[in-house]
Amino acid sequence: MADTATGPEHPAPVAEATGISKRFGATVALRDARISVAAGESHALVGRNGAGKSTLVSILTGLQQPDTGNLRFSGEPAPAVGDIDAWRSRVACVYQRSTIIGDLTVAENLFLNRQSAGAVQPIRWKQLRLRAEELLGEYGVAVDPAARAKDLTVEQRQFVEIARALSFGARFIILDEPTAKLDARGIGRLFDKLRDLQDQGVAFLFISHHLQEVYDLCSTVTVYRDAAHILTAPVAELGHQALVEAMTGESASVAAVAESRPPAARAGSEEVLEISGLTLPGACEELSLSVRAGEVIGLAGAAASGNVQVGEAVAGLHRAKEGRISVGGRSVHTGSVPSALAAGVGLVPEDRHLQGLVNNRSVAENATLTVTDQLGPLGTVLPARTRAFAQRMIQDLDIKTPGAATPVSALSGGNQQKVVVARALATDPHVLVAIRPTNGVDVKSKEFLLGRIRQVADGGKAALIVSDELDDLKVCDRVVVMFHGRVVAEFDRGWKDDHLVAAMEGVGTPLASTVSGTDEHGR
Ligand SMILES: Nc1ncnc2c1ncn2[C@@H]1O[C@H](COP(=O)(O)OP(=O)(O)OP(=O)(O)O)[C@@H](O)[C@H]1O
């Protein structure tokens, strides 16, 4: 920004970073990058997977030191490394993954390490709870201070983290993909809260791969590409196409996946996946669904709909109380992962951290975990074959990594997700169950991933995409919508966004109706 004058009329930016460079070994994560967030501003930071966003966040929050560059908060130099309290009073970050401790109560989490006035004074639990109640009340967060943190919803947990940040005095909060695990209503409530806080002078740096959220929430946007700052502009002056072009450096149309019409499933083709009368306690009741060879079916639903559990059950992760799941006509023992694997089910799990990756292992090992039997004779695993196999996947899915031997933990979030998808595809599954497969993946890489899932079906297999992301669902031949454990609607290709969203929210579409037509893009 050209105007750097400060004073009562022009307060210094709450955060300003200039000339920031950071390397990890041979990887340049940031090159002479910059950002400036004004007081009370809602500023978006966008870029493709691996562009350097999370690295910037770790520098802005004092977790990592830049190799070069300057960092100031409200005009003052950044605190010394390790002065945690000083950093906390300037900036806080709400991550996609929780930083609060599940076994502690909300009150304990809020006042962790500051329960009592002095080291020798005992903790007064009742007082702690009252202070927590007061604090949560002040920021309008309706959460019981006595509740265990692990029992909170993602949304409640984020609100607690925001309240905790504000209570340290921070007036600058970074949100790193905060909506990734929220459904539409949860996102709406989060945005309402952020707007309230913004009215009170709190500034945000908002990171998201959902560009519509940038338009809905932010006034300014900064784009990083290949470790460098590309532009900063008022959101209102930058159209969607221009924003994507800045992110990708290409002028290609962004809507390639949505607009490319995949071939319809072959009429009369065999049923590859059949779910009949499935009851999973607490998740779904008497649910039936079938997917034919050549089909990609969407199983849509909001957070409590049960769609994720149904997908997981197909992969053997949940035992059914009643009902049957069969793949290629063969029954799968519900609750048995080996049985599902043997039947040819591949899974992209919901949480790549909990169910997906082995962090300290290489990209090659992670990508080939499911196919070790193909990597050498008689139970041996040949490193050269593993590398070659992984190399193909790295190219196939456009995974940004220095090499196949790089530990998967050194990859950016979106590239880790691609490794998870690569692993599921490696087995050449008969049925691919992909749960929110493009979570954390940038707009361009989404095309690759969804295109690859489409190819599974086009090759005569079947795919089930379990998601509430409209972009994920647009590649599907048919979308089945669940609400509170039951199928409430079914949409053929060409559905309208608002109809599908309404069905996921449990309004509108009557039970089992089939809705089709032309969507707003004329498809
Ligand atoms: N600890 C690390 N060790 C080695 N390389 C790293 C490390 N952290 C990040 N990198 C590399 O730095 C680059 C920037 O990664 P970063 O996580 O900042 O990207 P990002 O823009 O946040 O991506 P995403 O959208 O996928 O989250 C990537 O090439 C990544 O592999």
What would the CATH topology of the largest domain be? Rossmann fold
CATH superfamily annotation of the largest domain: P-loop containing nucleotide triphosphate hydrolases
What value does the average pLDDT take? 85
Ligands and ions found: adenosine-5'-triphosphate
Largest sheet: 7 strands, mixed
Q: Give the name of the CATH architecture of the largest domain.
A: 3-Layer(aba) Sandwich
Looking across the biggest beta sheet, what order are the strands in? Answer: 16-17-18-13-19-20-21
CATH class of the largest domain: Alpha Beta
The termini sit apart by 42 Å
- Helical stretch count? 18
Structural class of the secondary structure composition? Answer: alpha/beta
Total strand segments:
21
**Anisotropy-based shape:** globular
When the domains are counted, the total is 3
Residues in helix, %: 25-40%
Detail the poorly predicted runs.
Answer: 253-262, 511-523
The percentage of residues in β strands lies in 15-25%
Radius of gyration: 24 Å
